[in-house]
Specification:
The chain is mainly alpha-helical and about 290 residues long. The protein has two domains: about 180 residues, no CATH class; about 90 residues, no CATH class. Helices cover about 40% and strands about 0% of the residues. Helix 9 packs across helix 11 and helix 11 crosses helix 12. The protein is globular and about 55 Å long. The termini are far apart.
């Protein structure tokens, strides 16, 4: 079997296609702080004038994701060799002990969104816009910095972000008036901050093997039958009342009692519902498992 459960023949076909038509030939710009990995790839393709038309996500192939998982130094000129965890959602996998899940989970290619004020501020600060990794996580609805809605289409030209040129976002935002839809201090904003704290914490591995069992303990204490060993369908009904607007939709875990069906973005939602802050989550882990601080 090849990468991501593909047959050897199919994987070889992907690999051959990748080498015949590799979209990026030169690293013209290193990734910016907290820039999403796919954003850095797309920007470099634009700078090298080798971007594709249509859905830009195709510029990061399944082969790329497989190679990143095996040896990051061989992909994109080693741009992410030492910093893959700084530009992806991998820290979620570390905290919730799911790091062995396929790279595609931690480097999603579809849920590309922007915060208008982040685009404007990044353009003024460094001369270009880019996509923040905090903005691509399913379940987050607002920017962790500004509390503004995360948009999947450019508010100026109406082009979907997954089709939009990253380097042209700045120009589009020049035509925009100031956005006034901030949800600062709302439950949605506080949850975005919670996710941001996970992504940037430096010692998640200390709590990795204890996080899910602590959450299960807390849920049982509150009277929920849901757990990481079955599914979180029961408690998610209450989580959604707090964190989801009426029309917001995302894929729920299936009802079968199989841990493999629980999407990775469900875990931080449950953790936030139980503890509200990352510090409180860690304190509960230390109490339940008698860990030294």
């Amino acid at each position: 079997m090849g990468g991501f459960g593909l047959s050897t023949d199919v994987f070889a076909k992907f690999h051959s296609t990748y080498h015949l038509k590799k979209p990026m030939y030169h690293i013209l710009s290193e990734p910016f702080e907290e820039e999403y990995l796919l954003s850095a790839v797309l920007r470099n393709n634009e700078l090298a004038r080798s971007e594709t038309l249509g859905f830009r996500s195709s510029e990061l192939t399944s082969t790329n994701l497989y190679e990143l998982q095996c040896n990051a130094s061989n992909v994109f000129g080693g741009m992410f060799e030492k910093s893959k965890f700084d530009h992806t959602l991998h820290p979620l996998g570390v905290l919730f002990d799911k790091i062995k899940i396929k790279n595609m989970v931690f480097i999603p290619r579809m849920n590309l969104r922007i915060c208008v004020r982040c685009v404007t501020e990044d353009s003024n600060r460094i001369g270009t816009a880019y996509l923040h990794r905090q903005h691509v996580i399913l379940g987050t609805q607002v920017c962790h910095l500004h509390g503004d809605d995360l948009l999947s289409a450019c508010p100026h030209c109406q082009t979907e972000i997954r089709r939009h040129k990253i380097t042209r976002l700045s120009k589009c935002m020049l035509e925009m008036i100031e956005v006034e839809n901030s949800r600062l201090d709302s439950a949605e904003h506080k949850y975005s901050i919670f996710v941001q704290e996970i992504l940037t914490h430096e010692n998640l591995s200390k709590y990795r093997q204890y996080s899910l069992s602590t959450m299960d303990y807390s849920l049982k204490r509150l009277g929920y039958a849901s757990s990481s060993k079955t599914n979180y369908s029961q408690v998610l009904l209450d989580v959604d009342k707090e964190l989801c607007p009426i029309n917001y939709k995302y894929r729920r875990p299936r009802q079968e009692s199989t841990i493999g069906y629980i999407p990775i973005y469900i875990y931080p939602r449950i953790a936030y519902f139980l503890y509200r802050t990352l510090d409180q989550f860690f304190k509960e882990i230390e109490i339940v498992h008698s860990l030294d601080k």
